[in-house]
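Input chain follows. Return structure tokens only.
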Amino acid sequence: MTLLEWDERVSAAAHAYTSDLPSAQSFFLIAGAVPVYAVPVGLAWLFWRNQGTDRVVAVKIFVSAIVAWQVLSNAIGTFLYSTYGFRDRPFAPVSSGEFFFERPEKAFPSDHASVLGVVTMMLFAAGYRKLAWVFVVLTFVTMVGRVGVGYHYLGDMLGGLAVAALTFAMMRLIDKPLDRALKGISFLNARVKAG
């Protein structure tokens, strides 16, 4: 049995299990779609705190999320689909969409896992441990929800985490120059006046 066949079997079993629980389908749909929206909320909160450092960190995490989602995930997915005719979404009906993220034709790698994964890694690296642990939970819930509802195979989620790790490594390589550039922007370093 190949790795892709194993992945398809495991994902089919997870989807079949959740499909047998009609009341759980709504939970898995919400779990697979909603937690990613904590990213803009969390970054906005971090940005508008009173410390200039928080603003720089929020911008760096935002840039990381965009690189993971719009650059690496798209490049890898486009390459695999155009070169190898990679697999489509497993079980989700094409008509079942989401608010902003859903692209029914592309399953690998998962954009949700990429974005949530890199945000989590960047939060840990920046020392925001409590917020990072919240994102660990959100990432896990999203991954389970997306496989359970049939938007992704398990391998798509793991591929998304690999994209997150690659993005994180790239961002760490340019961290010091990016930090200097962002700290040079006065708006990012100004303290927010209370009241």
